[in-house]
Write a structure and sequence with these properties.
about 90 residues; mainly alpha
Length: about 90
């Protein structure tokens, strides 16, 4: 698994470490790379704001039982295999 977190240095706290531990709970070791980044442009801030608004909207829809998609494990496996086969063509 690989993921990227873009956070303020002040947000690196015990709660953040708990999130990391939860994500990596199946692994005994992890590699962490830290890189400083420049301040976001206005466009990036707007995109981030829109992203979080979309996430909030999707959470609300899930809570209301709207626009949900469900599938069985077999359906997921079959669909994944189909996508994998397409990507190899």
């Amino acid at each position: 698994m690989q993921t990227t977190f873009r956070i303020n240095v002040t947000d690196i706290n015990e709660n953040f470490l708990k999130v990391l531990r939860a994500l990596l709970k199946k692994n005994k070791k992890a590699e962490i790379t830290v890189q400083s980044v420049s301040e976001s442009s206005a466009t990036e801030r707007d995109a981030s704001r829109l992203y979080w608004e979309e996430i909030a909207s999707r959470i609300k829809n899930a809570e209301l039982g709207k626009n949900l998609v469900s599938f069985s494990e077999d359906e997921f496996e079959n669909f994944s295999n189909e996508l994998l086969a397409r990507s190899k063509r």
